[in-house]
């Protein structure tokens, strides 16, 4: 049958129709090429993640926020990603001294024989306690530790020390030294907890465990934490906050909201450099008043959360405080004898994870709040995340098999993605730096008993969330009183957060969630040529603003000049996902001297035509010692010392 008999249109009409279709297709292609830079790196496929779940092309798709599902191995970053080799890992060597619950040490006679060809009767060991210096307002107390007097070590007997250095001898010949963190039952802590928990006992009470790993984005977690990711999904059935958005630049500005419910700058700035942090309303204080034992552990003590160019704490902030041990390990000669990421034959993060294991074993059926954060391994190197997979998997497996997670709510998370390096110059890197991974595990019995909470947690996996919401959830859990039918008698929200036990509003925007537009991942931005006059103006405003911020250090920091505009993006008030009333430009520049690379959001007021820098500015290449002449932790990233 002839074509024209099926479609009896004349040639002119056909050509007109063809031209219309061609115009539409070309227009669509132009639009998609210049549309949201998120869309350019979206993985436009459905990804099977479990038997009951298929991911759409969007992580978040609500009236208030849309975040596409991104490809972790996008071509723009693929050359930057590589798997670490097991050969580069720490040379694993099991020590013959084994740590048991309640600070008991025992000898593994088989390992002693294998490693040293010695029997238990042939050795004698002594230990020295590692102690924190007493608090004194005229000292940087939190940076001080001392080694106590030597004592004979008796194996199998609970020690009253928290941290020790063990030295073992064959007769008088030294052959082994080991730094060991312990978690003994502390009598005065137990007495205080028993007094406080009266009246707060509840059948739905859960322990709280917060375990963080520095600088791991959601995408880098997928790339490198293969065993851990699978275990979280298939065994622990964890809830994942896919729309979790950081609210500040670095660790301090993202963990302070989680732990206190307030932005860090509401508490601290350089004028308060001599301030101790004891008075802050940390969430663990709330749990302590209800009879919970509390623990705070960090590695990388020089750059610790409240200690980097700050004074830390006058008194130990929690019942169990890891910092004196961390200082002792770093200042020992162990690191000199091993690869940078290793102490003894283990990753430094493993020391923190072992401490967590010991603490949970010692506490057993006691109530506790635990916050542990490890940064040494992953802070600066994108692919070192691969080394953290096995220790993380082993920790989660231990907590699950020991039954700990059956009576605990666990937050397993990071503070932000990698902040420096080549990946930060890519489109993908701009997004993932703002989106750390976050998982929550909740006991199955608790979920069944409270189906509304479970439903809300599942819904909130695909809502815009922040550290403030984690804080509100912890407050909610503390005050939670459940009915047998699973309804809630009490709801909890903070000044800036909403409990994840409640449903996060579907129309929530970054502005609603107190996320600055500079950090907001809901922003739909499109490419704009760096040669556009408005971009040149925005870049100059950015550099002028940085110089203005450094005006008090003009005698120490060189005046910056714009060297090059690397990249520019634009979002407008026509976009329902962003802040209304302005046009905003995300501009990346290089300045001189120092070849610093900065990323800033500059707002154009459409009425006044004024350009202003929004909130903070990101430094996306490492600055090392370039700013060693000033101590201001916020401004250091901008300064080039003269």
UniProtKB/TrEMBL annotation:
Gene3D superfamilies per UniProt: Alkaline Phosphatase, subunit A
Highest taxon above the source species: Eukaryota
Organism listed in the record: Limulus polyphemus (Atlantic horseshoe crab)
Protein name: Uncharacterized protein LOC106459260
Transmembrane segments: 12-31
Keywords for the protein's UniProt record, in alphabetical order: Membrane, Transmembrane, Transmembrane helix
């Amino acid at each position: 049958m002839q074509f024209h008999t099926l479609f009896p249109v004349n040639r002119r009409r056909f050509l007109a129709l063809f031209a219309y279709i061609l115009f539409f297709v070309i227009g669509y292609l132009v639009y998609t090429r210049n549309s949201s830079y998120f869309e350019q790196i979206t993985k436009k496929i459905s990804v099977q993640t479990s038997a009951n779940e298929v991911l759409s092309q969007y992580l978040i798709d609500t009236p208030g926020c849309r975040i596409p599902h991104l490809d972790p191995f996008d071509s723009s970053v693929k050359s930057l990603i590589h798997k670490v080799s097991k050969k580069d890992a720490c040379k694993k060597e099991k020590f013959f001294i084994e740590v048991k619950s309640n600070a008991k040490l025992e000898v593994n006679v088989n390992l002693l024989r294998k490693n040293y060809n010695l029997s238990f009767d042939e050795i004698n060991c002594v230990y020295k306690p590692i102690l924190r210096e007493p608090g004194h307002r005229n000292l940087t107390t939190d940076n001080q530790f001392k080694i106590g007097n030597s004592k004979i070590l008796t194996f199998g007997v609970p020690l009253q020390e928290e941290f020790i250095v063990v030295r073992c001898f064959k007769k008088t010949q030294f052959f082994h030294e080991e730094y060991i963190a312990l978690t003994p039952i502390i009598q005065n802590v137990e007495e205080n907890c028993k007094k406080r928990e009266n009246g707060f006992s509840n059948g739905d009470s859960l322990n709280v465990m917060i375990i963080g790993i520095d600088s791991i984005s959601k995408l880098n977690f997928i790339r490198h934490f293969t065993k851990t990711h699978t275990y979280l999904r298939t065994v622990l059935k964890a809830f994942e906050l896919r729309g979790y958005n950081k609210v500040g630049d670095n660790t301090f500005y993202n963990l302070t909201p989680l732990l206190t419910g307030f932005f860090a700058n509401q508490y601290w700035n350089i004028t308060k450099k001599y301030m101790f942090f004891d008075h802050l309303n940390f969430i663990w204080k709330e749990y302590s008043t209800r009879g919970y034992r509390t623990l705070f552990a960090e590695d990388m003590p020089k750059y610790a959360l409240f200690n980097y160019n700050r004074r830390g704490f006058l008194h130990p902030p929690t019942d169990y405080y890891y910092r004196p041990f961390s200082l002792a390990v770093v200042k020992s000669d162990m690191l000199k004898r091993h690869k940078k990421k290793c102490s003894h034959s283990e990753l430094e993060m493993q020391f923190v994870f072992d401490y967590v294991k010991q603490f949970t074993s010692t506490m057993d059926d006691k109530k506790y709040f635990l916050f542990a954060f490890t940064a040494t391994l992953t802070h600066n190197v994108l692919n070192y995340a691969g080394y953290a997979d096995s220790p993380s998997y082993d920790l989660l497996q231990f907590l699950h098999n020991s039954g700990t997670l059956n009576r605990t709510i666990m937050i397993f998370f990071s503070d932000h993605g990698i902040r420096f390096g080549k990946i930060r110059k890519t489109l993908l890197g701009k997004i993932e730096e703002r989106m750390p991974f976050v998982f929550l595990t909740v006991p199955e019995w608790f979920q069944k008993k409270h189906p509304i909470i479970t439903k809300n947690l599942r819904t909130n996996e695909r809502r815009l969330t922040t550290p403030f919401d984690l804080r509100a959830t912890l407050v909610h859990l503390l005050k939670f009183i459940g009915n047998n039918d699973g309804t809630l008698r009490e709801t909890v929200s903070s000044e800036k957060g909403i409990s994840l036990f409640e449903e996060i509003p579907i129309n929530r925007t970054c502005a609603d969630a107190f996320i600055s537009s500079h950090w907001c991942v809901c922003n739909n931005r499109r490419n704009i040529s760096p040669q556009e006059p408005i971009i040149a103006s925005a870049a100059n405003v950015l550099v002028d603003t940085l110089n203005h911020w450094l005006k008090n250090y003009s005698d120490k920091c060189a005046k910056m000049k714009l060297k090059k505009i690397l990249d520019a993006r634009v979002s407008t008030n026509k976009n329902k996902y962003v802040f209304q009333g302005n046009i905003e430009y995300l501009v990346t520049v290089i300045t001189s001297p120092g070849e610093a690379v900065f990323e800033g959001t500059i707002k154009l007021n459409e009425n006044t035509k004024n350009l202003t820098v929004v909130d903070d500015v990101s430094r996306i290449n490492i600055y090392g010692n370039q700013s060693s002449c000033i101590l201001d932790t916020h401004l250091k990233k901008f300064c080039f010392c003269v």
